[in-house]
Design brief:
single chain, about 900 residues, alpha+beta, 8-stranded mixed sheet, 5-stranded mixed sheet, 33 strands, binds arginine, binds zinc ion
Length: about 900
Amino acid sequence: MRTDTNRTVYLKDYQPTDFIIESIDLVFDLGETLTTVGSEIRMHRRPGADPAAPLVFAGDGLALSGLALDGKPLLPERYDCDASTLTIRDLPEDGSFTLTIKTRINPSANSELLGLYRTSGIYSTQCEAEGFRRITYFYDRPDVLAVYTVTIIADKQSCPLLLSNGNLVEEQDLGDGRHMAKWHDPFKKPSYLFALVAGDLTMIEDSFTTMSGRHVALRIYVEHGKAARAGYAMDSLKRAMKWDEERFGREYDLDIFMIVAVSDFNMGAMENKGLNIFNDRLILADPETATDDDYARIEAVVAHEYFHNWTGNRITCRDWFQLSLKEGLTVYREHEFSADQRSRPVVRVDEVKFLRAHQFPEDGGPLAHPVRPTQYLEIDNFYTTTVYEKGSEVSRMIATLLGPDGFRKGLDLFFERHDGGAVTIEDYLKCFEDATGHDLTHFALWYHQAGTPVISVASFYDERKQQLKLTLSQTTPPTPDEKIKKPLHIPLRVGLIGPNGADMAPTAITGGESRKDVLELTKDEQTFVFEGIGARPAVSVNRDFSAPVKIRFDQSREDRLRIAGAERDLVARWDTVNALALEVLVKAAEDVKAGRPVTTDPALSDLLVATAEDTALEPAFRALALTLPGELDIGREIGADIDPDAIHLARNTVIEAIAEAGADSFAQLTGDMANGGAFSPDAQSAGRRALRNAALVLAAAAEKSPRRASQAYESADNMTDMLAAMRVLAHQFAGSAEAENALADFRRRFAGEPLVLDKWFSTLATVPGENTLERVTKLMGDEAFDEGNPNRVRALIGAFASSNPTGFNRPDGAGYAFFADFILTSDKRNATLTARLMTAMRSFEALEPSRRALAREQIERIAAHDDLSRNLRDIVDRMLK
Ligand code: ARG
Ligand code: ZN
């Protein structure tokens, strides 16, 4: 890991391998500190490849203990081997041979959780992106597809369960207290999709009959005692399988589909063929331990990994630069699934919030990169919101431009043409062009140009001509990789709302391409003319968030209030309510900074109260409207010279004004929306809870008393309500007896539930104010905290650094120093996790000068170490550039 910090990989250097792998047979003899891996690889030289070219396999920290060619041990002069490469020369003339490799690894010492590792008694693997090379020497790259047969030998007692990809073909008791299982995966796959799990787990089982009538066994493996909590994941899986058949015609292809939940996992989950491995927080749920957000996340990620079976596994990436080919598309499929299972606009608003909170700052900061990057130092650092979520938005825009049928046709062609292949973004786009006749040449720039476009809008209504003119200009700010940006091909959905609140339909739209209500922007500046508009409309732009852009539109307050009160596109309606609130909050922060009294805005209070009370709207939407932009959102909107303390104070002042204006309504809602009857995780019930808890924040602020939240905590019969009440107590009434009682009760009640205690750690780590650092430091000594467990680290340290603006950015810089210390220790243990954690500081340049200098000092202190992992080196160097 600490080697080769200079090996930048470039897209332009792509070359296919000199040899083609036909099959690989692996034998794992599992031991806690010594596992031997035998690999037998049948291969031949690629036709046309240089006959003198050596075979070069990748490794990472491996110890070679045997090497043979066609059954004969290889003499040392025929090969070179170090921890990261195995090179074999003078290969047989005819180019066809079998290679046998033996390596020895220590799964218990693998704290990186990459490759084969053993934690909490379970052996499991994580191979994407380059973890397979930590198991054996191989062509560890996505364009090398092979048939895998895997034999696992292990102690029967500690590992009754032995799993790998594909179908179980043999089981044997070896008589000496050990047993073996052999798995065969008939589908060719790249090494990153290899998986192995061994240990003692329990499972729940179900089945699914596919659209062609095939029977598929479904199993979810979890820790003993947790089986009852796997039911929702199983239900989600079955719904996802059905949905993918109906929506995209995709059928599952093996006889068995397995999911294993493990407690030590770097990421969310992994789509290994037929054997998905999950972070257990994305599988386990019951009303007492999981929130509504957890349920929604589980449903989405179970579906996401399942959808990868076609978008990722059956068709994979030629190289890692194409990562968004599978991730962007699969996120889009996941988003569509969630929208169909839940409330479409509410799901969409959550996506917009996520994109703005995470992807926009990435695109606007030192780590900006295109959806398809052209170079990387460490690929693990490119599993980003740009590749995933912006990539998803790009597929969504293709669907918007082509229409649902055109999109489906293109995707059908993609599956037909590329099944079994390892392909590129160009291959993907070509399918849509060939299937529909659309030219996507200009559109493709979305994959290659980093940065968030800004669209400026000016509207002019001509009553005499009954025309509305809309002038739209686009610019994309420079990013570190590229100063000059070109205009993009942007589909922008636009609505014209008449004086009575209804949509106005133009008789024609001229000035550029358009498809129904979608304008196609292609130039720096364009003017679209809407004909036959009988009265001055309020213009609603970027309905449904049709493009991942920022809109600058100096609209009259009257128009905005019309949109906020009547827009039928609920995404645009929410966006307008949110923007009005953000404007007031930003102004308030400026007031605080300038030492002026804070000006609040009664019209905003009226709007929010009216929206909260509007029973024509679904509760989940009302909850979204009622949840004010957070301190981080305000900071991002301000963009430069950020003072977190001023923002905190300003936001509290505005909240108080709103809370007082709607005190009775909010108090009323906390009661009206209470759970009637048994808990159900469905979206409607979740929406009622969301509204109730959004109202609780404001009701408590109006009452200036922890009493209501304390009662809500006591009477909560589910984790959503309990956590919401505890957060109000901890954050709005920090230090009160009620807050401390609830926190202590929660800690005691869930002492044996690490995933629930993560919520407690996060709640405490995000208490505003400079004293939180001391608490976080103390919590690191809590017996439930484990520096080796990624979930714990993210819950405490991650939440503190990325979601506590006043605490982390203490004026004295102690937050940064603490964080830098943690980063330096953590990097030795788990580089993937540490590098990701480090990105919490990527926007430090936007802070006011004093904090900015203190933050830089700490980042520079980290960068000054010469033994950083490649992952961390890459991130800090780019941050400081
Ligand atoms: N492919 C996985 C997914 O479903 C994520 C794997 C992440 N691996 C990594 N090394 N960052 O999104
Ligand atoms: Zn994925």
